[in-house]
Amino acid sequence: MEKQLQHQIAFYLTGRIDKSTLEPVDGRLRPALLSRYADLDSLRYDFPLVLNRLGAPGRAVLSLSRMVDHAVAELGENVDHERVARHGYRIEHALRKALAGGAEDFAALWERTTAALEREDEALHDSAKRLWKAFQASGELVDAGAALPAKAVRHAWSAVQTAKAAAFRYRAERLLLKLKNILAAEEIGSTVGRTPERLQAGVGSSFAGAFDFDAMSRILVAAKPAVELSDERRRRIGNLIGVLERQKFYALETDGAEPYDFAFERCADALDAYRSRHAEAVELVKTLAVAELEAKGEYREAVHDMIFDGFGANGLDAGELAELPDYLVCVDGQTLDAAELARIVELLAAGLPVKILVRTDDVLEPAFVAEGHVTFGLRARQLVNTAIGLHDVFVFQAAASHLFKKKDALMRGLAYHGPALFSVFSGANAHTGQIPAYLVAAAAMESRVFPALVYDPSAGADWASRLDITDNPHPDDDWAVHSFSYEDENLQSQTETIAFTLADFMAMDERFFKNFAVVPKADWSASLIPVAEAFQIESKGLPEKVPAVLLVDDEFRLQRAILSSRAFFEVQRCRSMWHSLQELGGIHNSHAERLLAQERKARAAAAAVETPALPTAGAVEPAAPPDAPASAAAEAAHGDEPYIESERCSSCNECVQLNGEMFAYNENQQAYLKNPDAGTFRQLVEAAEGCQVSVIHPGKPRNPKEPGLEDLLKRAAAFN
Amino acid sequence: MTEQTETISASECLIRMYDEQHEIEDYQKGVPRWCSGCGDNSILTAVQRLCRDEGLLPEKTVFVSGIGCSSRLPHYMNTYGFHGIHGRALPVAEGVKLARPDLTVFVNTGDGDCCSIGAAHWIHAIRYNMDMTMMLHDNQIYGLTKMQASPTSPLGLKSNTTPHGTYLEALNPLTVTLGVSNVSFVAQVVDWIPEVMYQVLSQAYHHKGFSFVRIIQRCTEWLPKLLDPWLHDRQRVLLLHHENGLEISPALAKSYTKMREHDPSNMNEAREIASAFDPIPVGILYRNDDVPCYEDLRHDSRLRTNSLIQKGLESEFDKFTIWADGNEPA
Questions:
Q1: What ipTM score was computed for the predicted complex, to two decimals?
Q2: B219 touching A, CB under 8 A?
Q3: Residue ranges with strand state E in A333-401
């Protein structure tokens, strides 16, 4: 074995660098696939985001670049189209640069940036004005960073709450109006409402002298007695109005009381607030239900008093809670202590209307006990797994860089009737040097260390409809694979496909530099294999190949760095965790694959057996006996008895007027023969003759001594 | 028609559980003064059954009518009713629906009331497509005023106003209705097949939009024999059936064997069927659930608060106010 390879293998196994053949990795290197994004500000991408306060909740989170594109597209075939577009891209670039990972008021920053650019190009003023008009947005402009997850989720949450508040306000104000109208109507119709003074006030000043209001009052009071509400109902309506006006869950236009706050930093606070407001919440939900009944005049004391006395004893259900505001708790995944962790699980498990955001800044945090073992954002991961296990919690996991792409799922989670957990990786930590948080976040998702997932219990009953992992890049494969082009030493263009693995992600993090060693170009050989292909390395005996990642340095020169087995072990762990998530998401499901294998085997076995002969033709199944005509059967069943085809009766009253004892109407107001002995055969025959739709059949006479039978029997024959 | 399967809260559930169950008697009021044997009785029974089966609250249901035998129907319903003026049942019903979209509105009118004096309102009611069910009691005669020819009287019918027989071909209410824009539900039934009448009225009630049901009805007093050939020969009734229309029960299929499958979304076929009178086509001729309703187009989501009403009134009055200095204050 050559010396170089020996040293490489030695490094792989022990992590010790032989300085004569290997060089240590430092912050100047970054994964080759990231080389395209060296100057992120000059690229157009989703970020920064505008947390928009105008319009529907669907427009709560907007992307600056898309807004510019839309605004430009709206211009259509305008002569200024190209100029506005060019200026738009320029302003966008300047904004991205000025924001530099932070957050600022969109309007203010726009104003400042465009003012600066206008000094160089006067025509930009007009373009900026047009673009701004087309945006129809107002709010904060936020770039990827530590603050983004909390800001974005909180903003989206408040957009959902605003929509809820508007719906509640409309409902409460409608009910208040109706309830007050009931009281007002009683007063207007009462003796007090019909005094001469009140009547005069109602007519107005112009005709104050035209009527004798005393006489009018006397006539009105005497002619129409006052309709009074019962004391009980008046008291009840008064209470309903009181509760609706005093409630502090939402602000109504009429009152000035400050509503409750529903956003918290700690679960304990949220829980305390929920507990202390519970009685009021029950009271409000009950009031809404009773008020609806009162407004419709459908409240029946005998029935409803009983229902509403015990109201809320079993707590409120998800549908009822959904009308009230949701609680929002934003916590930092890194600093979560055991008590807080337990409380989050409790909150989620109790089905309370709480939306919890867990922000993670560092997914490669070293484990507490084992050196070199990484936790993969342990606490957030633990919470996500637990929450999915709780079955009815909406779970959302995404890197911050994907928040815009996943905004619909985010809004869905916030509008979900029940608890929801949002786990977001911000990408902002101190260990990745100059690499922007956006790239770190995106890389975490690409490398499978922080995969995107949505678990939506409202989407269906099974895993296939609930769990969605399709937003991950190449969800069917082990790793996300990209093509990578470079020039070789002869300046010829070369293209390779490279998988972005956890090893590439680790190479961005200073804490793991010691797990990598750069191999000088002269020593590159077939023994250096890509990490994605290294899983077949023979573990028995000495390995002959070493996994390596492609990196580029600050002068865009390609480098290869091998990694230690310690790091490679973590890559393996990351891959198997991804496999397990894939299985839940229905990709390469082991149960299904096992069944498929069995089925294939069984089919192969069946195909091997000689095909049995087809059954001989001619064995015809016995034909079913034809149905006897039903009407004939019905007639036979009645025999000589009189009968009526009630279903065909057109309720014309002929027969019931002829003899109400003999003929009567059933529950559908159609005639039946109530008592054939309550009248004569003559009446039966006359009814049959009078029947418009001929549904009366007189049968044979029950009294053989009735006079004139011979003639009647002849007449009856037509109807039997 | 199935209810929307949305989840409801426990309290809502409890409230609905104690909803009152209605009997057909809850919707009956008084003894009808129609002649015995009159087809109006059959229509009355069908709507009373419909109200009971749908659990309509009497105080949330309105029957509006014009003038004529047909228009006495609201008197016999224990719900709200409006016995209007001749030919004007529809504008009244439209006003009711516009002001109170929460009410269920039925309109009962006759061939004289609707097709003659009220024809203009009829045409525009179809176009407005407001959510209500209209029953055209078509007995082809003015009965209440004792036998004058109506627009649907058959050619040659002798009556008090046409002693030598009518000179004009009868108006066909079905083809007229099908010819108006925005038409959304057209059906025809005969008063002597109660099962079909009930089913069609039920579907008309569930249709969101203006449902036009022409009911061919016998007048036993003035035209006792006119419809006998159709009444007694079951081959002269053509039952229209379709999975999206009427489903024929086995018992009915034995009595009435003349049937035709007709898709109610097919307008051309509907017009062809509507033009024929012998055999009488019975069933749903046309249905389109996508036509918007006028009350939805004009829906104003603002609460009718006292201040809003006052503001509206003031602004209307201001248009007619003579200002002291000759100018409206800014």
A1: 0.77
A2: no
A3: 354-360, 394-399
